[in-house]
Records
---
Amino acid sequence: MTNANVPWQLGRHRVGYLCRALGFGGALALLTPTVYAAEPDASTQSLWQETQSAAVLAGGLTVSLNHDTLHDGEALVISVNVPARGYLNVVSIGPDGEATVLFTNKFNRDNLVPSGPLVIPTQEMQFDLQATAPFGPTLVAAFLSQEKLDFAALDGAAGLEDTFAHLSPAARGRLSDLNTRSLTVVARATPMVLGGTAEVLTCAASAPCNKDSAEVTDLPDHMVPGIFLDADERGLEPLGAPPRRVYQKGLQLTESAEGFVPHLYNDAVHYCTVAYGHLVEKAACNGREPQEFLHGVTRPQGNDLLAADMQKAERAVQSAVKVVLSDGQFAALSDFTYNVGAGNLRTSTLLKVINRKEFDSVESQFMRWVTAAGKALPGLVERRKHEVALFFEGVPRTRGLAAEPELPAIDIRAGEQVP
């Protein structure tokens, strides 16, 4: 909301601590300008990715912003479409890595909300959330639970002295737990959680602030999906079977694992890419990409690209698997194939044990595919864990990973060495 009656001249500190609480500026109690590093460190990226992944994997919650870009001093309005009465938490993570709980706050101490739209700033707050330095991308993530879950109070604080609270260590542990359990059939005592995200790019007042002004960057941790490295797509079409599509929970897994980048970037093998790992061309970005990508893409456009790209993996799974698969099993194998490629699926021991219905060995075979360029990657380990959880959704397991003998890891690019 905008309230012209609330002055923002706090001495020489025009923006003040309230807009720093948005996560653009970091610490809540600071009334003096603070300089932050322009590039987030590994811990910042981990928290961003963990929060985004937890929200995306949970799904079911729509978060929207009044703008996707903001200049210094411009106001941000966050809207959350709450589908049912529950406990709402809204978190922001700025480019400096500061994680702030926007809801609840000093003015809204109760986060039990009814169904319908909820707008931040709320009427009780009576001030704007304004952009300020450091400039860059900020993540806004919302979580709705059916049992009491308050990110601002998990650390045991008696009350909020500042307007907003930092994300507590206990709350971050909760996010990690949500990230791990969101694709698992959970116990009845675990709160049902929905999630959703949105992102905003902030810029200095005199600087351009739009997607087409963003520089093409190299993102070495973003691996090009293996499905696009398959030179030969023959044999991907299942014979005599109607096309099968991955259901929403499976698409959420791939969204989370790939991560959304709205502008063109060069991935780990220097291929020009956009959105959820959509391959634009098998070469570095050079400014001659299709017009539709030069100015970046929106998240809905990225979702459309992902659904279209996923069809290659879906066809490969339908063609290679000879047994009946549940929705979760089909989605897990489609995500796996999207990541490692159809060729690697077809020659894998994983496929062999599935086709022999040796499901007791499935988990250990999934967990072999966790290295790239000879190094185990935490992101691949998490992705495999989520695929296992999805594969066994509603399916009892008589034996777990611990019962399997230790097996050699497999590089997702080199694939399994077939004797």
---
Amino acid sequence: MTKMIDTALKPAMTIYREDQLFAPWVYLLLGMIALNLLFPQIPPLRNINEIRPSSDPATYVVISVIALITACMMKMTTDVVPDGINVSFGWLPIYHTRIRMDEIKIVEPVTYRPMIDTLGWGIRRSWKGETVLSARGNRAVRITRLNGSVLLIGSQKNDELAAAIESTRRALMI
């Protein structure tokens, strides 16, 4: 089913594509929270036969919300296509943004400080007013638009992403 959704949402011609997951510790933390909610007796681990799932219905609501957040936000996909850049979050993408190639003024690979500049990863706004879309790491491509707004797109291969954007822009100028 997910492959069918990806195929339907994927543009006909992709020049560059990068799928990024968040750091493993994020998934581990969410899993530990869900496990602790599901089996509240685990911390003072007594007799293994005494451990029972929680009988509180709210526990299952919280676990469902954690699973939904993971499905809808915990993956970042960046596509460079002939007329623009598409960035989406989630296996079931609920956030999507598009930057047209003709809106771009400057493209540069950069290193930034996610915890200091934006207080983490995800869909953020930096202290400088830049929109930051990132899943992990400290590398990104800074895109300055003709209108002066700035967007940082997180990438594990920021040099390759910047080169793909630049070569696509150059091809459009000819």
---
Amino acid sequence: MAPRPTRPLRAARAAAAGRTTVGPATGAARPASRRPRRGLVVVGAVALLVGCGSTHGAGRSPDDPTTVPADPTPGPTLALAAGSSVVGLPDGLAAPPAEAVAGAARTPDDALIYVITSGSGTCPSIAGPRATDRGDGTVAVTFTEPEDGPCTRDRVPATTVVALPDGVAPDSDLVVAIGDVGVVTLPAGSAAPAWVGAGG
């Protein structure tokens, strides 16, 4: 009969097979614990859930009806047609300087210009739909009568699209008389607005 292996020898054989561990106090062999593996699985699942929660909504499509737009309030829309007006400035037009009371600018359509005024947001000054030729190389813009009612004491820009008189050359400087407020010159080929200051 072969001699029975001692405990240290059995423990060493089992450890080499990857199935046992050695107890700290007695050195006796015992089955390897599976708790570390289960722990790793639990930790991995928690990490996955946390990662999904931190990116909630990041991959939503713009067409997703639950997506909230970054700016839900769009800017003013101004149709490029004579007589159209809006409280505010059209896209691409720079804000007036603080001392400006009125101004004008060319539009993408050579037959139209923007006329901008500064005043009450509830009672804006609206230019008439067509400018007239004064015969001295100046086109004149008039204003419609304001509506009755209470007016706020704020100061905001309002823009009107005004048609130029027939025969105005688009490739020359354009002199515009803005009511009785003042006169501005729009250089040929420039889309930059020209402003009448507070001093006229």
